[in-house]
Amino acid sequence: MPEIHHTDLLVVGAGPAGYTAAIYAARASLKPILVTGMQPGGQLTITTDVENYPGFATPVQGPWLMEQMRTQAEHVGTRLIYDLIVHADLKNGPGPDGYFHLTGDSGDEFRARTVVIATGAQAKWLGLESEKRLQRGGVSACATCDGFFYRGKTVAVVGGGNTAVEEALYLTHHADRVHLIHRRDHLRAERILQERLFSNPKIEVHWNQAVEEVLGSGDPEVVCGVELKDTLTGATSRLAIDGLFIAIGHTPNAGPFRKEVACDEDGYILTESSGTATSVKGVFAAGDIQDRIFRQAVTAAGTGCMAALEAERYLSGIPAMTKT
């Protein structure tokens, strides 16, 4: 039988942004409810060694880090509900009862005085079985997160836009050799980035090439190469590498919120430049759902904190924080 849940603050999403928002909201006695979504823990649940999250002298496992955040959120008073929001009524503001109304896949109804959307974004993948199998063995979608592990090694980046070129340039600070694999004969990246790419002696560009297979070896299995196919001739070749970075874009998990709050053309929720407020008063967005630039666990957690603080001020009738 569907239930109706009431809360001062509803957090949608269980990644670093969502858990942090819930922790701050609970400590402010807002008795938050957090709806986890389909992938509690977000992208960190498919990440092995996390070496750049503050507070840990040695690498920690992504799933373990998210488990610690979940435990802390519950410990301070957050109520977790394992459900997926499939409908949201936000754009017209709170209803006559003073609540925003949202519905879960279970049929449960969530009524909240404020909402923090922290549903994140998902990296786009090539769709290969071998790519999925080796996601914990050398296939990554984040050079900033994992580049450090390839000091002195050879890596490849797939893509032709700004993200791919930026990832390739970043990886030159760690790897000895960086291969950029692109299925066309020209890049979409900005001209200044292309100039930096072409002038970097560590980078080799492979034009008109598509990754057909990710090759692995060893036990546990790790990336040892890729099989490439020429998009013009159909000829195949192999390239030996130690790590593969997929940089063909991200998809924000806007779902039922895309038509309820202002979003950009790609579906990222737009927030005020100085905070996390959306186009709807009382609704805030944090983490990768509104951050298309940094996409780091620590920055997501930071905006989760901001969203909770702004929600608390909103509920208290205090004007939004302004720059001084």
CATH homology-level superfamily of the largest domain: FAD/NAD(P)-binding domain
> How large is the count of helical segments?
7
- Count of the separate structural domains: 2
Strand % is 25-35%
- Shape, principal axes of CA atoms: elongated
Give the SSE string: EHEEEHEEEEEHEHEHEHEEEEEEEH
Helix content: 10-25%
Supply Rg.
21 Å
Class from secondary-structure proportions: alpha/beta
| Mean pLDDT across every amino acid position | 94
Number of strands: 19
Keywords: Disulfide bond, FAD, Flavoprotein, NADP, Oxidoreductase, Redox-active center
Protein name: Thioredoxin reductase
Enzyme class: oxidoreductase
Family: Belongs to the class-II pyridine nucleotide-disulfide oxidoreductase family.
SSE layout and pairing:
Elements: E1 4-12, H1 16-27, E2 33-35, E3 49-50, E4 60-61, H2 62-75, E5 79-81, E6 85-89, E7 100-104, E8 109-117, E9 121-123, H3 129-133, E10 139-140, H4 143-146, E11 154-158, H5 162-171, E12 177-181, H6 191-198, E13 203-206, E14 209-217, E15 222-230, E16 236-240, E17 243-246, E18 250-252, E19 283-285, H7 297-315
Parallel strand pairs: 1-2, 1-8, 2-5, 8-19, 10-17, 11-12, 11-17, 12-13
Antiparallel strand pairs: 3-4, 6-7, 7-8, 9-18, 14-15, 15-16
Keywords: Disulfide bond, FAD, Flavoprotein, NADP, Oxidoreductase, Redox-active center
Protein name: Thioredoxin reductase
Subunit structure: Homodimer.
